[in-house]
Specification:
- This is XRE family transcriptional regulator.
- Residues 9-62 form the HTH cro/C1-type domain.
- It holds the Pfam family HTH_3.
- One of its GO terms (molecular function) is DNA binding.
- The protein has a domain at 1-62 and 232-275: Orthogonal Bundle (434 Repressor (Amino-terminal Domain)), CATH 1.10.260.
- Helix 10 (150-166) runs antiparallel to helix 11 (170-181) and helix 12 (192-206) packs parallel to helix 14 (233-250).
- The protein is built from 15 helices and no strands.
- It is globular, with a radius of gyration of 20 Å.
- It is mainly α and 275 residues long.
């Protein structure tokens, strides 16, 4: 039962050291949250979205499962990881542009990693989004792509797709998604590939290709669970709930009960019916 909605929400709540009462306040009853966490009730899309947001699950603020070295000094690498995990992208951008940090980057693998992190910092840590700068950094990362960091190569490609999508460049976005997912089944498993599937689905969602996003995200969930991983499942469920809600908003005849049944089928869980 480790891959169910309830389990993922419970784990996330405990990570935050919050009680059921704190999380359910003004959203649902504590007993309902308990039923969800114990897999006796599958929430409808609106309820799942509200719970995910209360638990701090974000659509586009992510952390990698495994990070990459930008130099030989562990202190520099640890600093990058800490700033990323705290989503402090303004400080990350300033740190990466420091002359001493730039000079510490030596190998091709470190260069690939450095420019990927620089792109993320430019994307998330600036007041005014500058797609040209972000793309430049991502292309520099790809120019130094190494066999040892194949997942990072795919991350750069799918991030390029995301930048294109938010810039309204649909064709480029779809091409980059195709590149990021190409021969994914042949790739050695790496939990960062969970992020690739997720971001690719977000790209489709951003482009209002909801059915395609749904299909790809369910494929991603299958990939995650088939590899006995939990990483990115909460975000994946959140995205699927957003898709379900948007599809429901477009088809008003679909009731909340229908959407609950939809999620139950999707996650292979039973819908709890109160007597």
């Amino acid at each position: 039962m480790g891959h169910t909605i309830g389990h993922i929400l419970r784990v996330r709540r405990k990570e935050l050291k919050c009680s059921q009462a704190q999380i359910s306040e003004n959203i649902c009853s504590q007993s309902m949250l308990s039923a969800i966490e114990n897999n006796r009730y599958t929430p409808n899309a609106e309820l799942l979205i509200a719970l995910c947001q209360r638990l701090g699950v974000s659509l586009e603020r992510l952390s990698l499962a495994e990070n990459y070295a930008i130099g030989n000094q562990s202190a520099l690498n640890d600093r990058v990881v800490a700033l990323c995990n705290h989503h402090d992208y303004q400080k990350l951008l300033k740190f990466l542009l420091d002359e001493a940090v730039v000079e510490s980057v030596q190998t091709a693998a470190q260069t690939q990693s450095y420019y990927y992190y620089l792109a993320v910092a430019q994307l998330q840590g600036t007041t005014h989004f500058q797609p040209t700068e972000v793309k430049r950094s991502l292309h520099l990362s790809l120019a130094s792509a190494t066999v040892s960091q194949q997942a990072l190569t795919r991350l750069a490609q799918v991030t390029l797709a995301y930048v294109a999508a938010v810039s309204g460049q649909k064709k480029e976005a779809l091409n980059q998604v195709h590149s990021a997912l190409k021969k994914m089944s042949d790739a050695p498993f790496d939990e960062n590939l969970n992020v690739v599937f997720y971001l690719a689905a977000v790209v489709y969602y951003r482009l209002s290709l909801d059915k395609e996003s749904f299909v790809l995200m369910t494929r991603g969930v299958d990939f995650i669970t088939a590899n006995n991983s939990h990483y990115m499942l909460a975000n994946s469920y959140y995205l699927l709930a957003l898709i379900a809600k948007r599809l429901g908003d477009r088809h008003q005849r679909q009731t909340a009960a229908d959407r609950s049944a939809f999620l139950a089928t999707l996650f292979n869980e039973s819908v709890y019916k109160f007597d």
